[in-house]
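Exam prep: given the inputs below (a chain plus cobalamin), describe the expected output before reading on.
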Amino acid sequence: MKSLSSSELTEKIVEKAKSLGAAIAGVASVESLKTSPSHRIYPKIGMNLQVHWREAKDDVKPHVVAWPADAVSVVVIGVEHNADKPELDWWDGKGTPGNRILIRINNKLSGWIENTFSVKTYKLPYFVSKGGIFLKDATVMAGLGCIGKNNLVITPGYGPRIRFRALLLDRKAEATGPLEFNPCEGCEHPCRKACPINAFQNTVYSADELGQSILPGINGTYDRVTCNVKMEKDIEEAVMAIPAGDEEHQEVLKAIDEFEKGVKLKPQGDKRPNFYVEYCRGCELSCPPARWGSR
Ligand code: B12
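Solution:
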C-alpha cells in the first residue's frame, strides 16, 4: 500500500474507530501530552487518593507516566455512557460493560492499524499506575472536547456522558485538536452544586505552590480526596448488602480494585450481574444537555 500522509492516516483511523462502534475518535501528539497539566502535576501531587498533596510522604517516589520511547501519537476513542444506560457504568468485580466495549473496539482498531499500515500500536491500560495515560488531557488535546467546571471532559453531542480509552502509535498521525468549545461559559454550574459531598467547595490546589495554573477542577477546586470518600461511602453501603458467608460474593469483593470498589445485590434471573458498582455521577449527570447539544 502506498504510504499515507499523516492527515490521511488520521482520517482513516478515525473512520475505522467509528465503524467499530466508537462515538468519537481523535488524535493527539505524545510530545504535547508529556507536558499537559495532568502529566505535569501528577509527580508533584502523587497518586494517593487519601491525601491532597501536601500531606504526601516524602519517601514515596512520585509516579510518572511510562511512555514507550517510540510512541509518537495517541489515538483516543470514546463510547457514549448515556443516562438511559446506567448499566454501562456498573462495576461487576471485573470491570464495567462500557469499559469492555471500549477494550473491544481498541483491540480491533489496534489489529487493523498494525495489519493495514504496519504501524506499531500500544493498547493502553486504564490505570496510570499500570502504564495508562491521563485520558481526559489526551481527549482534550485530540480536540474532542474541553474540561468543564465538573472536571470532566465535555464533548459536543455527548457532554460528559462518555468514557475513553487510548492507543499509542509509533508513527505520526496528524493531531485533530484543539477545539474551540466552552459550554461552561455563562453556566450556573449545577454540576458543582449537585455534588453530594461538596467536592468543589474549596481551593485545594494552589497555582503558586504547584507552579502551574491549570489544576484539578481547572482552578484547583476539585477535591479528589472528598470525591473518593463518597465513592468509599457507596462501597460501604453496597458491602452491607452482601449476605454474610456467601462465597461467590466474597470472591467479587476480593476482585474489586482499590478505589473502584463496591457491590450491590441485584435480582438474579436476567442478564444483569448479581453485583454491581454504581458510582456517584452527580457532577456528570447534572451537566445540562442544552449546553452541549444532546443527540
Ligand atoms: C483516578 C481516577 C479517579 C479518581 C481520582 C480523580 C482525580 N481527578 O484525581 C476518583 C476515583 C475520585 C475518580 C472519580 C471520578 N471519575 Co475517574 N478516573 C480516574 C483515572 C483512572 C485517572 C484520573 C487522574 O488521576 N487524573 C489526574 C488528576 C491530577 O487530574 P484531574 O483531577 O483530572 O485534573 C486535571 C484536569 O482537570 C486537567 N485540566 C484542567 N483544565 C485543562 C485544560 C486543558 C487544555 C488540558 C489539556 C487539561 C486540563 O488539569 C488538571 C491537572 O492539573 C481516569 C482514567 C485515566 N486513565 O485517565 C478516570 C476518569 C477521569 N474518570 C472518569 C469518571 C467518569 C469519573 C467519575 C464521574 C466517577 C464515575 N462514575 O466513573 C468521577 C468524577 C470525578 C471528577 N469530577 O473529576 C472518566 C472521565 C470521563 C469524562 N467524560 O471526562 C475517566 C477518564 C475514565 C474513563 N473511563 O473514561 N476518578
